[in-house]
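Need tokens for this chain, all 219 residues.
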Amino acid sequence: MEKVLEALQQAIENGETQTAMNKTKEALNQGLRTDKIIQTAINPAFKDLGQKMFDGEIYVTDVLMASRAAHAALYVMEPIISRSTGTSKGLVAIGTVAGDLHDIGKNLVIMMLQGSGYTVIDLGIDVPVETFIEAVRTHKPDVLALSSLLTTTLPELDATVAALTETGLRPQVKVIVGGAPVTSEYAGRIKADAYANDLFEATEAVADLMHNRIGKYAV
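Here are the structure tokens for all 219 residues:
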């Protein structure tokens, strides 16, 4: 059984979409649970990729290809995940703030959250404060995730949290922030509920916030 998981992890790291789908089906046919597949093959793949990218061994395009392969694996498992969880673990709205067109990190977080059983509303990139506010008002998410990859767009995080307070919506939603220039100190300064440095921390932080826990990544 472990061989199929190793093969799936390798397929994801190599960006081999069809192989990832085939190995996921094979793993399911062998009776492996979706959570084991995610934890033993998909998550380790991205940890390896993250380290390789940090070391300069791979590039953003490699991560994008791996992301597509991982999405394909999750697509195969989605009907089973939906059945096994019965109902969604919670609703998360996520977007990259105004002035920022980056979406790789956001998309990886979405993939991880959906694979973990959450319903996710993707608000996209270059999202103005008003759109975040309207999303909270309309969809009533449990968690609002804000991404900023540029130092120049950091003030948008502050502005969004402030707008939630001004409109009286702040008590209704937990706010998590993340992105390359974001720090836990900054998150605390703008009164976010949690900060995450990568997709794994984001998934753990959302789980903590959903259960009103002050977790490792709360600020």
